[in-house]
Structure to design on (139 residues):
């Protein structure tokens, strides 16, 4: 009996989700999925990535520990963002908060390091804004 109730509840959620919100979630699923795979591969190939960073970065020298730390940190932040997108798919408010906080962490990282990129910051803020437009649909 509970299975039938749960099945009806998920069909109501799918009917109430706006199409543009579904498109936004698919974009974030793809974006986060690719970056999670890249950071995971970076963790498993840490010595090669450190070697390439040091070879092509003339002014900064990276240690294996630094590259491992950034890879783990990136994996965690994008995993939280992916989790937030999944919860946004199911119209949960805490999904919006998880997504927004992970985006703000990325923006703060870019501002406080030498990786300041206006385009990336504007895109992150734009996605937070677009997801906030559907705030009235979240439960």
């Amino acid at each position: 009996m509970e299975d039938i109730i749960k099945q009806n509840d998920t069909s109501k959620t799918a009917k109430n989700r706006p199409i543009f919100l579904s498109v936004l979630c698919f974009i974030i699923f793809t974006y986060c999925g690719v970056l999670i795979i890249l950071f995971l591969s970076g963790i498993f190939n840490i010595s090669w990535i450190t070697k390439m960073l040091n070879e092509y970065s003339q002014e900064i020298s990276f240690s294996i520990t630094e590259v491992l730390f950034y890879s783990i940190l990136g994996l965690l932040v994008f995993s939280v963002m992916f989790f937030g997108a999944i919860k946004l798919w199911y119209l949960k408010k805490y999904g919006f908060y998880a997504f927004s906080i992970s985006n703000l962490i990325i923006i703060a990282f870019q501002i406080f390091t030498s990786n300041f990129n206006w385009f990336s910051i504007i895109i992150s803020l734009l996605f937070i804004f677009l997801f906030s437009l559907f705030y009235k649909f979240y439960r």
About this structure: The helical segments are 2-16, 19-44, 46-56, 64-89, 93-112, 118-132. The chain is about 80% helix and 0% strand.
